[in-house]
Amino acid sequence: MAARPGVPGSALRVLEEALGLDLAAAGDTAEAVAAEGAFYLEQVAITEASEDDYEYEEIADDNFSIPEGEEDLAKAIQMVQEQATDTQILEQKTVLPSKQQVPEVIEDFLCNFLIKMGMTRTLDCFQSEWYELIQKGVTGLRDLGNVPDVYTQNMLLENENKNLKKDLKCYKQAADKAREDLLKTQKERDFHRMHHKRIVQEKTKLINDLKGLKLHYASYEPTIRVLQEKHHTLLKQKMLTSLERDRAVGQISGLQATLKHMEIGHNYHASATRVGPNSEKENAPEGPTQKGLHEAREKIQSKTKVKDNTKDSEFPTDMQPNPNLYLHKENICPAKFDYKLNSIFRLHELPVSCVIMHPHKDILVTCGEDRLWKVVGLPKGNVLHTGFGHTDWLSNCCFHPSGNKLATSSGDTTVKLWDLSKGNCILTFEGHSHAVWSCTWHSCGDFVASSSLDTTSKIWDVNSERCRCTLYGHTDSVNSIEFFPCSNTLLTGSADKSLSIWDARTGNCEQSLYGHMHSINDATFTPRGHMIASCDACGVTKLWDFRKLLPIVSIDIGPSPGNEVNFDSSVYLATFTH
What we know:
This protein is of the alpha+beta class and 578 residues long. The protein contains eleven helices and 22 strands. It has helices at residues 10-19, 26-36, 73-91, 106-117, 120-136, 141-144, 149-268, 270-273, 276-283, 288-309, 327-330; strands spanning 352-357, 363-368, 373-377, 383-387, 394-399, 405-410, 414-419, 424-430, 436-441, 447-452, 457-461, 466-471, 478-483, 489-494, 498-503, 508-514, 520-525, 531-536, 540-545, 550-556, 562-567, 573-577. The strands form six sheets. The chain has a four-stranded antiparallel beta sheet with strand order 1-2-3-4, with no helix packed on it. Helix 4 packs antiparallel against helix 5.
């Protein structure tokens, strides 16, 4: 607190009491102040006294001389003692008394409390009423005394307690958040640990499976090698057996001729040479072996007579030009790719292996693994005819160029020709030792070619009803075969990853094409005949230039295998997979 300008106030008294100074005229000053006027509260900063602010007394210079005429022994001794006293005083260290903390005055305590609590209106009322009483002299500051230290300490402790509670609340919130983060982290740790364990288990399982597969695969190799050796041995035995059969047939033919000559000679000399025992042998009944020989001779004679009557067909030399050479120029309309499913025909009980369209009519033929082929009318899908005859699944079928006959290949190692007008089997070709995969007609209609699992292909003569030629060269199953349009050239695709081009007249392989990395499932010519398309077991389709016999482009549509590849009239390529 401070007084108005020019008037000492109670703030000065408070300052004096805080510094420990005792003013004798405090009471008189208070009366004088009360007589002069009112006071107001003002904030005063009290600083502690430091040692640097201490003012020392100035000491006179010691270099003085005793005036002449006044020299006296007693005065000289006194002066020396005074100098020694002054030296001792200077040598002594000045020690200031320690400041004692003075408790706060009650009125200041109350004012500070109201200011701290923000009770400004109460503070104004208190100051006006309090100092009005002081001015009237009703109460005195001296009698009130100071606030005990206990209250001050309690306030400090309350403030510290509040601050500690705030800190405790913050720490609790931080601890709760840390607990939640810890729980979340533990859950994530457990999840990742379980995931890691599962991955390790799967990895271990895959490693074990891989090892088992490697061992299993390693056990296959010697087995396959042994089977291949057995296969080659059986083929050799088969060839030897066929040679022995041909030799035996020749011997039988020779014996038959000899018997004929002998019978002629015997009839000529019958009267002279016939005796009783011989006549008895002739009239004696024949045994089962002789009957079998006679029946075999009769069959052979009948077959030779039929074959002698029918002549082998000749491959055409003057072929007609390919009618599809200029077909692509007539197709001016752009191709349509927005095809939609129109109808579904359920025809077979087992999977369908082949579907072909009739060259002239709105009918199609389907072949299935249920040993049946069916003729279906479009667009209704009604079954016009069902073909029975094969003893195993059907693999492929092909229309005669005229459209009145059908050739089918089967897993029963046969190729059958059917008359579509009657639905009867008119001819069966037997000669393959394993399943027949594919068949195709020559453009003249007199020859049928077939490819088989026995690594060979055969050309059959429809007129003489026999195999005209067997094509050897592939080292694995021959999966597809097709005649070049209006030509005597054959194209085969094999599981040995190669394509071969053959001359059907001589049975020689003219060229082989290599480039596939997997088994070739199908191969075909374009309608114009200038390109070849082939697809393999990993879905890779390749285009070849037939004139240069070089690959053009490779298209990977895997990983599903490509089962069939074909061209439309606009030279657009389609590959069928599953």
